[in-house]
Amino acid sequence: MGVCWGPVLRVLVLQAAWALSGGQVRYSVPEEAKAGTVVGRLAQDLGLEAGEPEARRLRLVAQGRRASVEVSGASGALVVSSRLDREELCGKSAPCALRLEVLVERPLRVFHVELEVTDINDNAPLFPVNEEAFTIPELSLPGSRFPLEGASDADIGANAQLSYTLSPSEHFRLDHQENHDQSASLALVNESSGPRDDGCAPFGGDGE
Question: Which of 16, 108, 163, 164 is a good FRET partner for 37, with 20 to 30 A between their CA atoms?
Fold first, then answer.
């Protein structure tokens, strides 16, 4: 009875190819970059000569998450193929690093590519509700605090910094404090002890 070694040998060769690491190349690209944007000269950075990317079938072979990039034909450049949304890919995690694997043939080699998707200020801050009413005792003491729920921003770092403004009021001021644990507290603070006829003070938030 004959034994067929073909499929087994192909599996062994493929496993050996995956074990050969050609080092790691790192690139970065801003989210929302247009399709066709060149992320990096991949073939050149891997040491391939002109004509080799096609001859050796340079290509992406594995992506842990949808990366929205591809290798461009003869040039061997890594280019954006579809919309990159950092928040969709990584949420609030920073840095947002996608790990790709690139294969070349003759001889078989695997290269590891890390692509960092950097944040841009593309999200507006949002309050949990558009309008909120407060019942405040008319004779509340000066310095009395009335907690407010602040806005949230899907961006990260400096793009997620928020500032708040309060409409002009002689009775209230807005107190916004950043805490050591990177959380923030927001409150209306009573500034007067006399009778007043404005039961609430509108305020707003802006992303910087």
Answer: 108
| Predicted model pTM | 0.60
Tokens of 146: 């009335």
Look up residue 181 and give its amino acid: D
| Structure tokens belonging to residue 81 | 């193929």
* Domain-wise residue ranges, the chain: 7-118, 145-207
Q: Name residue 49's amino acid.
A: E
Dihedral sign from CA coordinates of 6, 8, 14, 16: negative
Average pLDDT over residues 60-75: 76
Beta-bridge partners for 24: 112
Of the options 3.10.450.540, 3.30.70.1280, 2.60.40.60, 3.40.920.10, the CATH number for the domain spanning 7-118 = 2.60.40.60
β-partners of residue 187 are 147, 175
SS3 labels along 121-153: CCCCCECCCCCCCCCCCCCCCCCCEEECCCCEC
